[in-house]
Amino acid sequence: MKTTVRKTRSVCPVCLKNLPSVLTRRNDGRIWLEKTCPAHGCFEVPVWQGLMDFDRWLLETEPLPPGCGLNCPGDCGICPEHESGTCCALLEVTRRCNLHCRYCFADGGAGEDLPLEDCRAAVREIVRQCGQPLLQLSGGEPTLRDDLPELVRYAKEAGCSYTQVNTNGIRLAEDRTYAKRLADAGLDIVFLQFDGTRDDIYRTLRGRDLLDFKLEAIRACSEQRIGVTLVPTVVRGVNDDNLGEIVKLAARLAPGVRGVHFQPVSYFGRYPTAPESGDRYTLDMLMTDIADQARIRVESFMPSRCDHPLCGFHASFLIEPDGELKALSSITHSSHSRGCARDNREYVARHWRRAPEEAVPAGSFSDEMDFDTFLYRLRHRSLTLSAMAFQDAMNLNIERLHRCSLHVYDGGKIKPFCAAYLSRMCGD
What we know:
By secondary structure, this protein is α/β, with parallel strands linked by helices. It is 28% helix and 23% strand.
């Protein structure tokens, strides 16, 4: 027995043809995305496991209007139907990589650097089209470029509000001089691939032991006062039992580590095999697992403020002297009214950048702390947990795609992230 929750559009995972689709609720409370391609048959995939109230999480978000999304994502570049401005813009600056991970949305490893002058031209075009975004320099592995600091400096001069490097951290761990060059150039944030606190996880997902490199990269960034956000790719049966340990480690490493940004695995780029429905790791599974393992209340999580509620969550915490996390956020007090891209960008930067050094205020760090002490702890002893549940060709929901604020520069066009990396999941 199932009931229709709402209508939307998606694509065929074989041919990527745009298709009408529906979200249905089963008797067990799970929500499925269902669609039928005239050429390739019927497809269904779970998008919510019923572990949390689906309707409450949506917060009365409007469904995709009739007649909208008919050309998505094939004709993609941000169009008049798109509902969100650019909060973060991603620029791939190299195809090279020093790892060959089993899971890689960019399928990095083979190829060349984008020439520096082409990078500069892309930055100028991003600023022209997107205003003053947070620029994410990605790859491949961007730190393989010796001139990356020069590009960071140029991006700031060209008008990007903040700069971020997405990295596996190996070069930062091995080359302290390189980390200093990035800091001197004005780098604000390092988005550090960080899949767990055990090396068996890295051997499975990345092909080698990497934990010591990750910890050394964090130390290198902390010395240079570059904010670090840990970014675990969460794969069911590999590291979904380690989420609480990642959160606890992040709290111990604050203020060098500013947050953890979880990414449930999605299937585009490079991945081992097309997943079965039972392998899907949904957003409500992620939240309940983090809450159980890190001993925090699941009500601390709020829907993404930048994108569609089903795209992600965020939660803010004060780190108590004993390491416990005290929630500063709650879905009970949230609404899904969204700020403009600039407001969202400033929110992200405020939580992921490293705050300037300041003197510890005189006074107590007890529950009776004064306001100055509270502000100090908010800047230096806080942690943000967030997530982005990227979409692939099986679970793509064009209602979500229209609300995306993470955009990719691709051949002169600005595209929603999941549209830019969308790929067929199985052969014809």
